[in-house]
Design goal:
11% strand, rod-shaped, two-stranded antiparallel ribbon, 2 strands, mainly alpha, 71 residues
């Protein structure tokens, strides 16, 4: 059986046919949430490393820290 809406024809799905779609949606949602969480953690880590770098550069340029040169 076909379902007609606004000049488009869609196959009418039974409830049993919709379950795989719902399962796939929930799987994809879970994956995207995990990726989003991981990206957030990576951004936080990058920001922290950038703050540490700025602090070290400030210390090096001000002379508070010295670098030993071997050669």
């Amino acid at each position: 059986m076909l379902l007609v809406r606004s000049n488009m024809i869609y196959p009418k799905l039974k409830d049993s046919d919709r379950h795989p779609v719902i399962k796939m949606d929930s799987i994809l949602n879970s994956i995207f949430m995990t990726v989003d969480r991981k990206l957030g953690l990576l951004r936080q880590r990058r920001e922290k490393l950038e703050r540490v770098k700025r602090g070290l550069m400030k210390d090096l340029l001000s002379g508070r820290r010295r670098v030993k040169l071997t050669g």
